[in-house]
Amino acid sequence: MTKTALTGVLVFDGTGLTEPTTVVIDGSLIGSDPAGAEVLDCAGATLLPGLFDAHVHLLTSDDLHALAAFGVTTALDMACWPRERVDSFRGRVPDIRSAGLPAIGPGGNHAKMPGMPEEAILTTSGQAAGFVARRVAEGSDYIKVVIEGDLLDQPTIDAVIAEGKAHGKLTVAHASSVDAYQRAIQGGADVITHVPRDGVLDAAATARMVEQGQVAVPTLAMMEAVTTKLGADGYTFSRDSVAALYAAGVPILAGTDAFSAPMLPFPVVQGASLHHELELLVSAGLSTADALRAATELPARHFGLPDRGAVRDGLRADLLLVEGDPTRDISATTKIQRAWAAGQVIA
Questions:
Q1: In the chain, which residues have pLDDT < 70?
Q2: What predicted TM-score, i.e. pTM, was given to this entire model?
C-alpha cells in the first residue's frame, strides 16, 4: 500500500485555509500517520478536496479523461443512456453517479434530441410509476424530470417526483425559466438544476426552497453560453437569480451542463468549464469559500456521498493540489499541480 505525506501544505477546511500542515495519503484514504511515507514538499500550495461537477452529460471515455485532468474526481451525470453506456463509466475516474434516462414531455427540445427513447416521453401522470420503477431497476442513482413550459403538466411532474422519493431516490428537476422553477418548487424536487433566463426568482420562490430544503445547481456556464450564442441578455437574469438564491440561503452546488456532443451550438466543455463555473458563481455574489464548498462539501452532502468532499482523516483521498490561494483568487483552482482520486494520481 502506497503512502504519501504532503508536507507544508495549506488545507481548505470549508471556511478558509489552515496553517501549513501535513496530509497523508494512505492507500485510497486520507490518513494521519506519515511514518514510512514518500514526502512531497507542498510549501506555498493549497490542498482542496477533489472537485465535483454536479451536472454533466457523459458520452465517451474522453469525457472522463477531460474531467480528471481538471481535478474533477466525482461527476454527477444528469442524462445518459442506454444503461450499458452508463455502466461502462462506473468504477472509473471520475467516480460517477447518473440519472440515466430523464422524464420529459412531448414535443419539446429534449424530445427532439437524436436517439431519445420513446419511453422517456410521458403524457399522463399514470405513466410515472412505471417510468421510475424502470430507472430504479436500471440502477439510476437519482430520478430526473425535465420541465419545459407546460409540456409536462403539474400532476405528472408531481407524480415523477413522488415516485422517485417513494423509491428512496433523490429527485432532480431541469428548469430554465421562472415558470419551470415554480413548477419544480411546487413539485418538491430535491435539486433544481439551471436558473431562469427569462426573469429573476422572487423572494417567495427562494424562501419556499429554503423551507422545503431544496438545493440549486445553476449551471451558469451553460446559461452564459446559451445566451451569448443567441445574442440575448438572459444571462443577467440567470446571474441575478443565483444572487437571490444565495442571499436567501438556498444551498448552491457547482455544475456546468458540460456535454461533448457535436450537435450543440453552444458547447460547454468537460473539466475546464467547472473552473469557469466557480468564477461565475463568485461574480454572482458567492464568497470564494462558498464557491469552493459548492464544488466539494455541498454536493457530497446533498447527493449522499459522505465519504468525500473534505480533507479529513478516513475520507477518500480525492484531492486537488493547486498553486496559490483560491480563497483569495478563485482562478487559482486552475493552477493544478497534482490531483488524486482514491489515492491514485490522475493529473
A1: 1, 231-232, 263-265
A2: 0.97
